[in-house]
Design brief:
about 5% strand, six-stranded antiparallel sheet, Serine Threonine Protein Phosphatase 5, Tetratricopeptide repeat, 3 domains, alpha+beta
């Protein structure tokens, strides 16, 4: 009776290590079948197996010359192989007391010769073997034994690679699930904000405040709700509460011209005239083309006359060029009033001077003077402002054609001063800055564009390229990924992300991207070389050789064409 193989001293840990690879009972895979084929060819045997030794069986991941999917562990030669770190050679099983009465020796497949190299994990656990079998007694040369050992190491490397890929896939899936959960939570919270907006449009300001309160309770950093709640409170006459909300909003978004003006109006209503002037001046500093509200004279009437004249003169000196462009702003340096108008009338009149935001990504500012408002003149002013912005962009584009990128940047900047929500102007200025190697400035411009248009796939690629120039490859990968989420067939995004991932030594990700790129551009030799290099880093030499061969084959195919051209 054949004796049972002894158990390793670390059997429980060994079994745990085996199961972490999640390889048992999986379908055949070509990469492992290639190893058994090579083993059989090198050792000149009819049978070759990749065997994994489980608790009570040995299961075959790949096999040549054998049909059985597994055998009992009690009969397994490989159960002895895993006990040692060196290959096990059995030249004649009938002459070996361990195997002489083994049913696998006495009947089909009639094993006589066995050579197995253990599959050793990095922690030193033997989980199986790469073995070759013959039906006649024989031996292997030293070169064949060494080749078998090398192949077993490569089998183990593939198992490690497969395990790492599964770990990464699980991690990605978990992140995606977490992101989906966050999106669901965000969508749920966002309902309160949208409902508050709708109630505001319907004039239900109390109901709107209730919804904005709930939105801010769930999302304290949702700064947009502070502004909207402030407007609702203002409508209900709760000026102090509105001031608190405007203050909170401007902490998050200090350069919002409309919010600055609205807070200025509110400060005026509360009698804080210096604070109102500060808000209006700040708004004008952010956007010099914005018109100064006509009630500024009323504010000045409550201040010391000399102080007003000095401050107002200083303001006009700083903005004289802009005042020339907007002649309809007619504020006298010495204009004062002896007393305030009726408060209710003043607040009602002051609402004229709020900014008007169109839905065409263009901010429009209504211009008033101390004389009666003329709608026709205002319309003409807005049209001229829009035309000037376009002229600056057109001239900037022409300067780019002449390689005058510095001049182009100046024009795009002037256009953005007139219309700070023109996404194309930010893109054009970002491209010009990129050419001048001002990558940080380019990133700022692309980011501004994406705030306005978050679904512009090409801008993510441009910003990713700028991040690469600054060697911030992680940020670049994020941008290329976002671009591919918006446009899945963008070969530029795939090749750029592949290169960035290679710089981050994420060769598995790089290989995936090169593969996707080559599906779209199957004749790109450089991409094959890059993928081959990445595969080589992962010691997938067979895959690397295949990629290099593709380039070589293409070069050979081109030789006759080159020869004929040379003859001509």
């Amino acid at each position: 009776m054949n004796s049972q193989p002894p158990l390793p001293n670390n059997e429980l840990d060994r079994l745990n290590a085996l199961r972490q690879y999640q390889i048992l009972d999986t379908p055949p895979e070509k990469v492992f079948d290639d190893f058994t084929f090579l083993a059989a060819q090198i050792c000149r045997t009819p049978i070759a197996i990749i065997s994994l030794v489980d608790g009570n069986r040995q299961w075959f991941k790949s096999k040549v010359g054998l049909t059985a999917p597994e055998t009992s562990r009690d009969l397994a030669f490989c159960a002895y192989t895993i006990l040692h770190s060196k290959p096990l050679i059995v030249r004649n099983a009938l002459s070996d007391s361990r195997f002489a009465t083994n049913p696998l020796v006495l009947s089909d497949p009639n094993i006589r010769f066995y050579a197995g190299a253990p599959l050793m994990t990095p922690e030193g656990f033997g989980i199986g073997s790469l073995c070759v079998i013959d039906v006649v007694p024989r031996d292997l040369s030293l070169e064949q034994v060494e080749a078998l050992r090398v192949l077993s190491s490569q089998v183990m490397a593939q198992l490690e690679l497969r395990s790492n890929a599964m770990t990464i896939s699980r991690s990605i899936m978990q992140r995606q699930q977490a992101a989906a959960q966050r999106r669901r939570q965000y969508d749920f919270i966002e309902v309160f904000y949208r409902r508050g907006e709708e109630k505001t449009r319907q004039g239900d300001y109390k109901g709107a405040i209730v919804d904005f309160n709930e939105f801010l309770r769930l999302n304290p950093n949702g700064f947009k709700a502070y502004y909207d709640r402030g407007l609702a409170r203002q409508k209900l006459g709760d000026y102090k509460g509105a001031m608190i909300d405007f203050d909170m909003y401007l902490r998050f978004n200090p350069n919002d011209v409309e919010a600055r003006n609205n807070r200025g109006l509110l400060r005026f209503e509360l009698g804080d005239y210096k604070g109102a002037i500060a808000d209006y001046s700040h708004a004008m500093h952010i956007n010099p083309d914005h018109s100064m509200p006509g009630e500024m004279g009323l504010i000045y009437s409550e201040l010391d006359k000399k102080e007003v004249i000095v401050e107002h003169t200083h303001y006009l000196e700083l903005n004289s060029s802009d005042m020339d462009m907007h002649a309809d702003i007619n504020i006298s340096q010495t204009h004062t009033h002896s007393m305030l108008e009726d408060d209710s009338n003043t607040f009602e009149d002051s609402t004229q001077f709020l900014t008007v935001n169109s839905n065409d990504a263009e901010e429009v500012y209504v211009s008033f003077s101390n004389i009666q408002y003329q709608p026709e003149d205002d319309t003409q002013s807005l049209r001229l402002s829009s035309d000037n912005a376009k002229l600056h962009i057109d001239r900037g584009n022409a300067r780019c054609q002449l390689n005058d990128y510095s001049g182009a940047i100046e024009d795009y900047t002037q256009s953005l001063k007139i219309n700070p929500r023109n996404a194309q102007a930010y893109i054009n200025r970002g491209n010009a800055r990129f050419v001048l190697k001002d990558y940080t400035g380019a990133i700022d411009d692309y980011t501004q564009c994406l705030w306005i248009n978050p679904n512009h796939a090409q801008t993510y690629i441009s910003r990713g390229n700028a991040y690469c120039e600054l060697e911030d490859y992680s940020a670049a990968v994020e941008d290329y990924t976002r671009s591919l989420e918006l446009s899945s067939n963008n070969s530029e995004a795939y090749i750029n992300r592949a290169n960035a991932r290679s710089r981050l030594k994420d060769y598995n990700g790089a290989i995936e991207d090169y593969t996707n790129f080559l599906q779209l551009n199957p004749n790109d030799a450089k991409a094959y070389i890059s993928r081959g290099n990445a595969r080589s880093k992962l010691k997938d030499y067979s895959g690397a050789i295949e990629d290099y061969k593709r380039v070589w084959s293409k070069a050979i195919d081109e030789l006759p064409k080159l020869s004929s051209e040379d003859r001509r």
